Amino acid sequence: MLTYWNNYPTIQNKLQTVCSLIEERLQVENPDIQDALIEMTQAGGKFLRPAFFFFFAELGDLEKQDPIQLNKIATSLELLHMATLVHDDIIDDSPLRRGVSTIQSRFGKDVAVYTGDLLFTVFFDLIIETMNASEYMAINAQSMKQLLLGELNQMASRYKSNGSVENYLNSINGKTAELFSLACMEGAAFGHSSPEIIQQAANIGRNIGMAFQIFDDILDYTSEKEELKKPILEDFVQGVYTLPLLLAKESNPDVFLPYFKKESQVTIEEAEEVMQLVIKYDGVKQAKKYAKNYTNDALESIDCLPKSPTRKALKKLTTQLLIRTY
Amino acid sequence: MLTYWNNYPTIQNKLQTVCSLIEERLQVENPDIQDALIEMTQAGGKFLRPAFFFFFAELGDLEKQDPIQLNKIATSLELLHMATLVHDDIIDDSPLRRGVSTIQSRFGKDVAVYTGDLLFTVFFDLIIETMNASEYMAINAQSMKQLLLGELNQMASRYKSNGSVENYLNSINGKTAELFSLACMEGAAFGHSSPEIIQQAANIGRNIGMAFQIFDDILDYTSEKEELKKPILEDFVQGVYTLPLLLAKESNPDVFLPYFKKESQVTIEEAEEVMQLVIKYDGVKQAKKYAKNYTNDALESIDCLPKSPTRKALKKLTTQLLIRTY
The organism sits in which domain of life (chains A, B) (predicted)? Predict the structure, then answer.
């Protein structure tokens, strides 16, 4: 999906190098798994985390930068993301990811467990090669832990009809925003920006990550199946109650209670009713407000970065990514 | 199971500290998972990897040692081991481990995936705290990768009736011997032994690990169910063909072919027939020879270590662990 970056040719080139490094590092003896990993990389997402990393690196001191180090760190971010995706797909029993069969559906949960683990080790290799001895080792370990605690928290909340907005925001802060924050922060840090900019980058990344996940969860309630490339309301059926539903439920608990009670026994028709009810009771509308607030916070902080073409491009990207459907 | 160490009171005390540190570090918000993790730790195995680590540390320069650092590294070894166990149990669909329900059977595969991942992150935390900037970071990452490649290799060989002894030895070298080798090596290194002793320690650990895994695989063919605390011939039913079977098959392929062909459809009665055939065709007897060779290599190398009460104890332990049933 590097075509997403057609208007950002410098970034696109750098992401191509990330893609090559992933393929180079993911050497497994089993040819099936090897193929699946390469297919997953290529069918891949937008490489958003490495992209934000490079944007923030470009804001730094170009003369001091080491392109090989930057490429490895950018790659580590995508690998950490991929590892969690492979494991997520086991949890969700997902047949598809980005329109391509998941590792777990093609090879079984067994292979998917170890494949995810292997991606973690390659992630680990790369950060050791690039930042061993720096404080960023511990920051990475901390981020990885936050990511998993976010996922565990989300799982522990499954089918809980008393789920709160606060708990949801905590979960996505760990499972999504943490990695966006790390990407922007490391871009600034290894791009040799000042400590203040590094701190700003971490905050901007966190806000972008929060908005991004909320936006993603909104899509579950507004997209057609073909567009989403995954089954409609998969999260709801799995007992993962996201922001639009939580907000609609807050003001109208009785409407939703019968559906919650069915847990995984809910039918497709009932899931579609829930979808309509969430829209009817302004769940989507209110969730968009949350997303917009996080996006605006991000955009305002971007405006405080040093003026440059990169800042402009970063603002454009953030806008394009997060408010295209408002 | 720290009673195993009753005759080694110094080691037993140190392992108790490892146990406490594991409990301290495994703080999860979900109380069920928290309990399961603590139960797993306490019901735990023999803590062999930390124990070998401490034995080798004791051979070093005691005055230069930092007990807190040593405790953390010993703990990291057990956590890495536990992480792979939690994920292994998913693959094997195991109901029991050490006579206690597995995480996957109590909470489902979902929780087990993330719980294993979380153990990996706590392992990372500990090694970053204790050896950031040292070459041992990369050595740890390498070991973790070897462990997973060993498991992946074993999985890719499932139900393959043409499995070779060589391939088996490669698998167990990764999935088991690697971590024993790391434990002994790190004990020597962080105990401030000489580079020569560190290298010897790594070799001794590898030989002990190989013998230990072969011995474990032999038990599948010689133990009663109660003794083993897991279903008889679980590995065979899962398509994991270990050394006793591979050796018996080498000289009598036709005898075993009909059983291989049934794959996971094999009945309990048939599994018991295989067990008898493996014994009849000297699979167990020959596998014991392999185990004995690795054990002897380990013991000979232990004899070359500097003479000390620890060396004596290490020799006793290795003998007790690996040749008790010959």
Answer: Bacteria
By Cβ distance, the residue of A115, A125, A141 closest to B121 is A141
Selecting from B110, B117, B141 the residue whose C-beta is nearest the C-beta of A124 gives B141
CA–CA separation, B201 and B190 (whole Å): 12
By Cβ distance, the residue of A110, A122, A144 closest to B91 is: A110
Q: What is the DSSP string of B179-224?
A: HHHHHHHHHHHHTT--HHHHHHHHHHHHHHHHHHHHHHHHHHHH--
- What angle, 0 to 180 degrees and rounded to 10, lies between the N-to-C axes of helices A283-303 and A195-222? 160
A161 by DSSP, 3-state: which? coil
The ipTM is 0.85
Domain boundaries, chain B: 9-321
| Burial degree of A180 (CB within 10 A; 0-12, 13-18, 19+) | buried
Backbone dihedral region for residue B160 (phi beyond 0: left; psi -120 to 50: alpha; all else: beta): beta
What is the predicted pLDDT for the residue at A315? 95
Judge whether residue B307 has pLDDT over 60.
Answer: yes
Tokens encoding B209 = 């690990």
Which member of B116, B132, B155 has the closest CB to residue A132?
A: B132
Structure tokens at B37: 């993790």
Q: Is B151 on the interface with A (CB under 8 A)?
A: yes
| Whether pLDDT at A326 is above 50 | no
Q: Are B118 and A149 in contact (CB under 8 A)?
A: yes
Considering only the beta carbons, identify the residue of A115, A121, A155 that sits closest to B141. Answer: A121
A 10 A CB-CB count for B113 gives: 29
Give the dihedral sign, CA A143/A146/A151/A154: negative
* Chain A contact present for B33, CB below 8 A: yes
State the pairing for strand pair A100-101/B96-97. Answer: unpaired
pLDDT digits (tens, 9 = 90+) for A250-305: 989 999 989 888 888 888 888 889 999 999 999 999 999 999 999 999 999 999 99
User: What residues have CB less than 8 Å from B41, skipping those under 6 apart?
Assistant: B19, B22, B23, B26, B82
pLDDT of residue B1: 63
Partners of A91 on chain B (C-beta within 8 Å) are 109-110, 113-114
Q: Considering only CA atoms, which of A119, A110, A91 is closest in space to residue B240?
A: A110
- State the pLDDT at residue A209: 97
Collapse the DSSP code of A181 into the 3-class scheme (helix H, G, I; strand E, B; otherwise coil) and give the result. helix
A113 chain-B contacts, CB cut-off 8 A: 87, 90-91, 113, 116
Which amino acid, A222?
T
Cβ contact B144–A153 (<8 Å): no
Residue B113 in contact with partner chain A when CB distance is under 8 A: yes
Strand segments, DSSP code E, in chain A are 96-97, 100-101
Residue type (1 letter), B18: V
- C-beta atoms of B145 and A125 within 8 A: yes
Non-local CB neighbours of B230 within 8 Å, separated by 6+ positions:
B94, B96, B97
Distance, CA of A142 to CA of A145 (rounded, Å): 5
Give the residue on B whose Cα is nearest the Cα of A155: B111
Give residue-wise pLDDT tens across range B12-39: 999 999 999 998 998 877 777 787 788 7
Interface-testing mutation among A121, A127, A238, with chain B (most B C-beta atoms within 10 A): A121
- The domain B9-321: what is its CATH number? 1.10.600.10
Cβ separation of B121 and A138 shorter than 8 Å? no
